Amino acid sequence: MRLFIYVFAFLYSLSFSLIASESDITNPNQVLHSVSTTTFKRLNDEKSRLQSEPEYIKVIIKEELIPFFDYKYTAYSVVGPNLKNTTPEQREQFVDAFLAYLINAYGLILGKYDQQSLLILDINNFKGKKIVSIPVRMTDNNGQVTQLDFKLRNNSKTGEWKVFDVIAEGVSMLDTKKSELRPLIQKQGIDEVIKLLLEKNSEFVS
Which residues contact 159 (CB under 8 A, 6 or more apart)? Predict the structure, then answer.
């Protein structure tokens, strides 16, 4: 259940359009508000195609979510101190495998979307900050409320805000992935963890 909350939350937080205005991507509040209209509108508009072509969900994820998810930063954070012991090729391979895993996981869970609603609690003190946390409340059809906090990181060169973590009921998705993968990297090496991710990716293939 927690995995669904994490993925659903990320889908909301990452899903603003490639045609978003400059003000959208330089204001973390507007990034999250765009969430509630863009990707889920596309899901509804292309529902018939998704039913006949389930793999098409990956296209939507790649086009609508990934460009605005700081997945490289997240992947590097998972590797942590072990990063200094890796080669550029290993880092690239890990990021690619990690990204593919996220796309597959999002695609698997995205079909569970069932008109959940979000209340975004805007923040006003993001000017000059590099990382902010925006509270969000998700309500399902039964009226159950889940407390979420979206963490966004600002690119000092472009001014863009991108999501890199979500905290569901006090538990960080990023910290969870660190606890799962970092010990394996330390014990087995990054090459073995890359293989593990690739194996998991292959399990998503129908």
Answer: 25, 26
